[in-house]
Each structure stands twice: as structure tokens, then as C-alpha cells.
Design a protein that fits this description.
With 355 residues, the protein is mainly alpha-helical. The protein folds into 4 domains: 59 residues, no CATH class; 65 residues, no CATH class; 87 residues, no CATH class; 108 residues, no CATH class. 53% of the residues lie in helices and 11% in strands. Strands 6-3-7 form a 3-stranded antiparallel beta sheet. A two-stranded antiparallel ribbon has the order 1-2. Strands 4-5 form a two-stranded antiparallel sheet. β4 and β5 form a beta hairpin.
Length: 355
């Protein structure tokens, strides 16, 4: 297979031009009915996705100097001299068997003892084209008792709005419906957006008769779906919180000029939380949680007016002034009613003594 990335390198100047030229060339090749694309329909779908994906992401993934697809067994062999061993997938939904494997597939995998072969066969079963793995040096699996003990003390926090939860999740086996009674109880217990240990969470599930295995699968799914996050050990460290919020303030101020950083730092989760541009504008300007939606709306209106921009909804600019006012008011209302408490609980910002 030719490497289009290298073959077209001399035809373009900037890396952005190189990307556009490559995608356009692949499109022309497809339209010329190259047999490769007729046989490999999935490649056609991938090219279509390229058109809508972020340019920075595509450059990072496909145009770096060392881009080279590699099989799991090859990666394992490369890392073995460094004493690095495969630990687990970094994508939690990959770990839920019922979501990704049929019973015959799961039974067949259990017959395979060699890890590298098992992972390679699993990739074939699930048509996995992009792995997200964690490799560890000196990796020693925990005993079942050690694992349960650590999990009981691990804390979790709901990072999405409880009422917006969709009781569906997709995997290699397609979309499945989640048990609304079981997951509803878990979400209700997390609905105040405060950290809670797995031990305390389990105590709330006694009435619905959920065993430990079901509990772990449920929390794994919720974290993997991005609805719930694991709480960092430094969640209450004042220095970490201050530095995190200082970073957020700088990022939000920079995004007022050019919005290109979608994530803000959370000392609670120890990671980034995706927050859209309008919410960042509101977080930077709001002075009190008691402000009205009408007042908060003005922050967005002023931001757009100063830049000569119109509000964009579903990819299109809102040209009608009345509709734009209504859409801005809705954003402000949702921000106050659904999201501000979450952002404060995650310590994205602090409204205490802000001004």
C-alpha cells in the first residue's frame, strides 16, 4: 500500500495545505472509481469523516513524521525490552464485555491464553482500528480482595446533568438500553454533584438488589460514557485548586480573542472538562450564582457585538435578532439551571470573593 502522506509531500507547502491536498486527492481517487475504495467501503467512510474533523486533530494523527500503523503484537514486541507490559484499555467502554462481544465471541476469547493473540483476535471481532492502551512497567495485577478494597474507597462525581442522561450506550454490538431503575438510583445518588465513595454508593443500591459485579459494570459504563468521573486525590488541595482556577482564567481570557481551547482544568477530577465557548464567556464574567438569566444573557450579547459576530446554532449563524435574543436567553438559562453548579462542584471556578 502506498503512503499517500509521503507521496504527496512535495506537492504542498504548509502542513495545512498538505492536509487539504491529501484529502482532496483521496476524494478524486475515490471518484475515479479506484477498485481499492470499491472493495474497502470503510475507507470511503473514513475519508468522509476527514472532511468534518478538526484540522489540528488530523494533522496530529496522520501527518506527524512517525505515523505508521502497527499491530498490537508488534507494539508488545517493541515495548518488551523496556519491560513494559499491556495493562488495560484506556477506553473504559472497551472493558464491558456485554457491550462489545457476543457470547460465542466471548467464549472463544476465554479459550485463548496468550495475551497478545487474545488482544489481536479481539480486534478482529470488534473491528477495532484505533486502540487506546495503557502499558505499565513492572505491572502486577491486584488480587480480587485488593481491587475491591481500593474501589470501595474510590470517589466518583457526576459531571453531567442528571435529567439529560440518555439510558442508551453503543459498542461493537450496537446500541443497548440501560436498566432505568438501576442506573436511575445511581444517578439520583450522584445528582447533587458532590464526590461519593463507591462504598456509600453501594449502600444506596441495597433496595434494588444490585451485586458488586453489576455495580462495577454500571460505574464503568457511566465513567466511560463521560457522565461520571473519578475524583482525584488532590481534589481538596488548596494549592492545586488555586493553580487550576488561575489556569482556567487565563485560558478563558485567551479564548475571548481566539477560541481554540475547549477544555478547562478541574482539580476535582485531575483532568480537563470540555466546556463550549459561550459557557466559557459566562464563566469568565459571572459574579454571582444569583444573577438572572436576563442579566447573564448580556455577557454573551456584548461578547458577540464587540466582535461583530452572530450566534451560531447547529452550524448556522442566527440572523434574525429576535430569534438570536431567544437563543441567547436559552443558553443563559440552561447555564444557570443545569451547568453552573456542576462547574462550581468541579472547582472550574470559584464565585467566592470574585469581585
Amino acid at each position: 500500500m502506498i503512503d499517500v502522506n509521503d507521496s504527496l509531500d512535495s506537492f504542498s507547502k504548509s502542513i495545512e495545505d498538505r492536509l487539504r491536498f491529501t484529502v482532496d486527492f483521496l476524494q478524486k481517487l475515490k471518484e475515479a472509481n479506484a477498485l481499492y475504495f470499491l472493495v474497502n467501503k470503510n475507507v470511503v467512510n473514513r475519508i468522509e469523516k476527514f472532511k468534518n474533523q478538526d484540522t489540528a486533530y488530523l494533522i496530529h494523527e496522520y501527518l506527524n513524521r512517525n505515523w505508521q500503523p502497527i499491530r498490537f503484537t508488534e507494539m508488545a514486541n517493541h515495548l518488551e525490552p523496556a519491560k513494559l507490559a499491556f495493562a488495560t484499555s484506556a477506553h473504559l467502554l472497551d472493558l464491558v464485555e456485554a457491550l462489545n462481544l457476543t457470547k460465542p465471541q466471548a467464549d472463544l476469547l476465554r479459550e485463548i491464553k496468550r495475551l497478545a493473540l487474545k488482544e489481536s483476535i479481539k480486534d478482529l471481532m470488534t473491528y477495532q482500528t484505533f486502540r487506546r492502551d495503557i502499558w505499565a512497567r513492572g505491572y502486577q495485577p491486584l488480587t480480587s480482595a485488593e481491587r475491591i478494597s481500593l474501589l470501595h474507597e474510590t470517589k466518583f462525581i457526576l459531571i453531567a446533568n442528571r435529567n439529560d442522561f440518555n439510558f442508551k450506550v453503543s459498542g461493537s454490538n450496537g446500541e443497548i438500553e440501560l436498566n432505568q431503575e438501576l442506573y436511575g438510583v445511581i444517578l439520583d445518588k450522584l445528582a447533587n454533584h458532590e464526590p461519593i465513595s463507591l462504598r456509600d454508593l453501594r449502600s444506596a443500591l441495597v433496595p434494588v438488589n444490585m451485586n458488586m459485579s453489576q455495580m462495577l459494570q454500571a460505574i464503568t459504563l457511566l465513567v466511560g460514557m463521560g457522565e461520571v468521573a473519578i475524583v482525584s486525590r488532590s481534589a481538596n488541595d488548596k494549592d492545586v485548586i488555586e493553580r487550576s482556577q488561575s489556569l482556567n482564567k487565563m485560558v478563558m481570557a485567551r479564548n475571548l480573542v481566539e477560541y481554540n481551547l475547549e477544555f478547562l482544568s478541574s482539580a476535582v477530577t485531575g483532568g480537563g472538562i470540555r466546556i463550549d465557548r459561550m459557557h466559557q464567556v459566562l464563566l469568565l464574567n459571572i459574579k454571582s450564582a444569583s444573577e438572572s438569566a436576563e442579566h447573564v444573557s448580556k455577557y454573551i450579547s456584548e461578547y458577540l457585538s464587540l466582535r461583530g459576530q452572530k450566534l451560531v446554532v447547529d452550524g448556522e449563524a442566527v440572523l434574525d435578532s429576535t430569534r438570536e435574543h431567544n437563543e441567547i436567553f436559552k443558553i443563559a438559562s440552561d447555564f444557570l439551571e443545569k451547568y453552573l453548579k456542576i462547574y462550581i462542584s468541579l472547582k472550574i471556578i470559584s464565585l467566592k470573593n470574585r469581585y
